[in-house]
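Sorry to interrupt, but I need a hand with the structure work. Please put the record directly below this note.
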Amino acid sequence: MLTSSDTISMASPNTYERLIAALRLTVDKLVQPPARINDPEHIKRARLLNSILLVTILAGCLILGRVFIVAGNPWDDPEVYAGVFGVAITFAFYMYHRSGHTSRVAAMFIGVSLVLFTLVPFIGAAHTFLPYAVVPILLTAIFFSVRWVAVVSVVILVVTGVLMYPLDNQRYIDIWYFLIFGSMLIVTYIRHQTAMEQIRQTALTQANERLCQSEENLQQLNHQLEARVTERTHDLATKNIELASAWEAAKQADLVKSQFLASMSHELRTPLNAILNFTEFVSLGMLGEINERQTDALNKSLDSGRHLLALINDVLDITKIESGMMRLFIEDNVDVYEILDAAESAVQSYLQGKPVSFITEIEENLPAIVTDRRRLRQILLNLLSNACKFTEQGSVRLCVRRQGDDLCFSVIDTGPGIAPQDHDVIFEPFKQTETGIRHAGGTGLGLPISKRLIEANYGRLWVESELGRGAAFHFAIPVRQPELLLLVSDVETAS
């Protein structure tokens, strides 16, 4: 339980704080200069003068109060009259200063203090006031220039020297020496401070000039930079327009090229198929008997013709893919084993006469998938034919397995391999590695077409290979992709 003393002790700090805050606010109001003074330097000087005047009034009142309390009849002492006069005139100066005449009030205050501390001590031999003659010198140093400090010092020294001369009092002479030494110190210090201030002002002026010059240079650089940016922006806009125009022209040219290639491929395939058919009829003896030499020549012609037809088909496929005209014929429940059997039969013809074995690792119970049957067969044949062409000895292996929702195919050979820096190149149309050109030639379209077809089936194709270590091509396609199931519905609806 709190007692009354505890309550007082807890409340006292807050009371003191409020009292101190109120005292600070009162003092701040008393020393505040008039509102019409706007210059910061003038405001500081005015506040300082108000503070000095108030301190002088307070000190004078305290001293006079003590004198009246201690002395029996203080009015016999001329110093009392001087003190009362000083306090009264200082208060008058303070009130007059409220109008804003700082320099005038400072000069009058210095003049009165000069009279009080220089002349009064010689009235009635009141030499105790004489050391205070240094006060006017200090006040002059605060509010005026060093020249006026020197003038006031000389006046005080001359007046006190003249008044002291007939007295022949050693104490007065010692005080006079003190005034000489003190005034010289004050003048020297003020001169030093003035010189330092001039140096500082000069340095500030020079720094300000350099800053102004730097700002001017910066503005010029900014204008130049803005002009260059505007010029570059205009050039860039022009280049962008030209680039857009060139890009549009390139797209149009590419479209025309694709259309031309597609048209030419169609036009070439028709007579080529006729040539192949009639050549085959002749080689089979349907148009009459032929000898062995003629049969061999006709078979070579058929092989070359079929190769040419395959190249034309590749060109047609890549042009359809690039022009967005490739269409998949998606079927449901495609039997993977049927496609693998056809691919295995084709591989046997690819490897005919080569010391290369064909190995299959096909997982049992593979599910039927949703895909384009013909395109899946084309992908497998492209990968297997490449492996057979590049492999001179060793083996070509076909692996098929289910992995989650995907069906994974791998074609692995023991051929020359592919350098890591060429792994991306082989999937670009019409591009081949040096090894590919040296071993097989061709157009370089098989892998790009296979990659696009696999991606159209929402799958992916990648290669793992190093030079001299063979190559492994892997691709994975989903067993049942929802987007492909929609295409099955579209095909069935169209049919």
Remarks:
- Residues 412 and 472 are 4 Å apart (CA to CA).
- The two ends are 99 Å apart (CA to CA).
- Strands lie at 331-334, 356-362, 369-371, 394-403, 406-413, 460-465, 471-478.
